[in-house]
Amino acid sequence: MMNNDTALIIEGGGMRGAYVTGVLDFLLENKIQFGSCYGVSAGAGHACSFLSEQKGRAIRVSTEYLTDARYVGIRSLLKTGDFFESQFIYDTIPKKMDPYDYETFSKNPTKFFAVATSLETGKPEYFLIKDLYVDMPKVVASSSLPFLSKNVFIDNKPYLDGGVSDSIPFKKALQDGYKKTVIILTRDIHYRKKPFKFKKLLQWKYGKYPLFIKTMLERADNYNQTIEDIITKEKEGKIFVIRPSEELHVGRLERDKEKLKALHTLGFSDALKQKQALLNYLSDD
Description:
single chain, about 15% strand, 8 strands, 8-stranded mixed beta sheet, alpha/beta
């Protein structure tokens, strides 16, 4: 089922993205496709396996290498500057350990945007990903967490996590002309983000990027307002949301494989429960 007038929005959330992998596997199993996909942070990474139509790959990659020092941890942070080692995750794994289907991705008609935050402007940029061999740094930039990742340079300009400036870019999709949006969230309906407390640390780390600091300090308010807007439009039937049906007790840096697999199961289950409602939404003119 191809839905050319519908955009898929995928929130990040670090390892909570295991929930997303379950929802995406549901969509793959039911052959539901979209005109466009906007992935943010970990959501951008998981979108890659969705768009290559490799069911099960995203959760597999998220869990099978947790004990490998090259994948995640303080050792990686000290050695490479990345808590999640980008070279291993985005090059070694897809090319050697769990082969990525670049050909299927290249043939997928869905437009794929990875959202990253410019350190210079503090604003989001929506990178169109056409060729993953060439454009992978843009996906890496989207998922590079402040303090835990090196700045990623694209055209000699520094970028970090897209979630800082636009965690859930459904308004961008509407601006781009999509009539409908399906949003995958990684927090339950009651969650609201708390303000960033460590202003001095932020100044120390990113003092040369005052607009980025400003965006970081405004992030909680912007995120919470976006959630309120989503709830309003969801009630009006203008957007469709798949979110955790229960509060998630899994952190952004979670490394418990069983907890992550349970999140995948929850994502698939939540999507399955909403299957008919989703199909109705997609088919309603």
